[in-house]
Write a structure and sequence with these properties.
The chain is mostly beta strands. The protein has a domain of 165 residues: Beta Barrel (Lipocalin), CATH 2.40.128.20. Helix content is 12%, strand content 40%. It has three helices and ten strands; from the N terminus they run αααββββββββββ. The protein has a ten-stranded antiparallel β-barrel. The protein is globular and about 65 Å long.
Length: 243
C-alpha cells in the first residue's frame, strides 16, 4: 500500500463525526383545530447559558462597542447548537480506495463525540483497525467561529505526527458541510489539499465523501466513502416490580 495515501485516508476518517447537521423542517399541511390547544411547555435551549461574563473596567481606548464585539464572538449560537446534536456514539462503515481504479478496502470504526467548553467545541475520539496496519486511534476538535462564520477542525492520529487542519462551510438548508482540508505529505514533504462533503439524512445517518490527490498524477479522486449510524444509548436498568 502507498503509505502516504493510507496516512491521508486515515486522517480523513473522523472529520465527519465532529459535527451534526440539523435537518430542515418539513412543511406540514394546515389543519383546523377541534379544541383549544393545550398550554405548551417552556422550550429550553439545547445548550446551557454560556454567555461570557466580562464585568471589568475597560483599558484606555477600549470602547464598550469593542467589548461587545468580543462578547459576541465568544457566545455560542445556533451553529453551536447544531454541533451539540452530534454528541453520542457513532458506528462508521468505510469503503476506501488507495488509488484510482484499485480494489476497495472495507473497514469499520467507532466514534465518540463530546461537547466541551460551554458548548463551543466538539471533541471526537475514533477507534478502529486498518487492514495491514493494525489498531487505529484518532482525535479531533472542531468548532464554529462566530467571526469568520466558518467551521474549523484539527485532527491527529497514531499513524503520524502531523495534523490535518481545515475549514468548513454549511449549506443554506443546513444539510451539508463542505470541508477544505490540508495535510502534509510525508513522501514529498508538501502540503496536500483534500475535500470532504458531509451529508446528513432524514433517517439519522450521515454519509461522507472524501476526495484527495492521486500520488502519481496529482489529480483528485474519491478516496473514501463512510456511512455513520448513531449507536442507541443504553437504557438504565429498572428494578423488578414489587421491590
Amino acid at each position: 500500500m502507498n503509505r502516504c495515501s493510507i496516512l491521508c485516508v486515515a486522517a480523513l476518517t473522523a472529520v465527519a463525526g465532529t459535527l451534526a447537521i440539523a435537518q430542515p423542517a418539513k412543511d406540514k399541511p394546515a389543519t383546523k383545530p377541534t379544541a383549544a390547544p393545550a398550554a405548551q411547555p417552556e422550550v429550553k435551549p439545547a445548550l446551557p447559558d454560556a454567555t461570557p461574563k466580562m464585568d471589568m473596567q475597560l483599558p484606555p481606548g477600549f470602547t464598550p462597542e469593542m467589548m461587545k464585539a468580543c462578547m459576541d464572538a465568544a457566545t455560542p449560537g445556533p451553529m453551536h447548537e447544531l454541533m451539540a446534536k452530534g454528541v453520542g456514539t457513532w458506528k462508521g462503515t468505510s469503503t476506501m480506495w488507495m488509488a484510482p481504479g484499485t480494489e476497495p478496502i472495507k473497514t469499520e470504526s467507532l466514534a465518540t463525540v463530546k461537547n466541551i467548553l460551554g458548548g463551543r467545541f466538539n471533541t471526537l475520539e475514533v477507534k478502529g483497525e486498518f487492514p495491514g496496519m493494525g489498531p487505529f486511534e484518532g482525535f479531533a476538535i472542531s468548532g464554529y467561529d462566530n467571526v469568520s462564520k466558518k467551521f474549523y477542525m484539527t485532527w491527529a492520529d497514531n499513524f503520524g505526527t502531523g495534523m490535518m487542519i481545515g475549514t468548513g462551510e454549511i449549506s443554506s438548508d443546513h444539510s451539508t458541510i463542505t470541508w477544505d482540508l490540508t495535510f502534509n505529505c510525508p513522501v514529498d514533504k508538501t502540503a496536500k489539499k483534500f475535500r470532504e462533503i458531509d451529508k446528513h439524512h432524514a433517517d439519522g445517518t450521515m454519509t461522507v465523501e472524501m476526495f484527495g490527490p492521486d500520488m502519481v498524477t496529482g489529480k483528485e479522486f474519491k478516496m473514501m466513502e463512510i456511512t455513520y449510524t448513531r449507536v442507541p444509548e443504553a437504557k438504565p436498568a429498572t428494578a423488578p416490580k414489587g421491590m
